[in-house]
Amino acid sequence: MVYITSWDEFVDRSVQLFRADPESTRYAIKYRHCDGKLVLKVTDNRECLKFKTDQAQDAKKMEKLNNIFFTLMSRGPEADISEVTGKEQTEAQPAKKGRGRKQ
Question: What residues of the chain score a pLDDT lower than 50?
Answer without folding.
Answer: 88-92
